[in-house]
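User: Hey, my collaborator sent me this sequence without any context and asked if I could get a structure. I don't really work with proteins. Can you help?
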Amino acid sequence: MVIRSCQLAQAAERGLRGRLAKAQAEITALNTRGRGRRRGPDPSALREAVDAISTRSRGQGLLHVRYTERFWERPLRRYGGRDATMRLEWDVQVTVSLDEEAVAAAVRELGWRVYATTQPSAQLSLQEAVLVYRNEYLVERAMGRLKGRPLSLTPMYLEREDHATGLIRLLSLGLRVLTLLEFAVRRRLATANTTLAGLSVGNPTRATAHPTAERLLEAFQGLTLTLIRDGRRRRRHLTSLSRGQQRILAFLDFPVAIYTRLCPDSHKPP
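Assistant: No problem. I've predicted the 3D structure and written it out in structure-token form, which is a compact way to encode the shape of the chain:
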């Protein structure tokens, strides 16, 4: 099945045109002359700079680049024992424009995906197959968690085989906790037909129905239990849970008391 996602294609086209516009501006800026810039640039160096910009923006074959050499005479006044004369000077200018036909051809290739299935079309329609792939469970994602930042199995600095086996088994328990935590919250959100906001850094109003376990745990950062000694007396203060944190506990079927009972004395700052 060869599928094109229009939304993915539109996002990719915006990225492509944005990169090309930036490349055009950078190439045009190479014509600027001023203090610290040579009046007559080396043509080979100019071409290398243009090629580097095109490569960085992935715009090879999508930009029309033209180089123009200009020559003119500049009079030099008489100075000391030197007679007045004329000096021949030259400059190289570069102009750039989009190859609209090439850009249109590149845009037509964006957003395409190839899917394969053993199910016959009579049992699995095209629309159903696309939805299945969009919601598929990826084993690689769990392995990425195990080896990546959340659990950090690698790099492994263990020489004994039993130690390595024990570490893998221990971290696999953590992987199960992350997976179960994420599944439980997503299932409750789907059942309630609602979303959860406040998990995106820099965008607290953004809501999602598919939060990751890492984002859910990060939402509880900053909680503090403070112990103050006043002679023989101890006073305690526990950071209050926000409304979003309480919602997360509710989606996990955890009572708020599992947190508040850590500090039975007071929830108000002393």
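In plain terms: DSSP finds nine helices and eight strands in the chain. You can pass these tokens on to your collaborator as they are.
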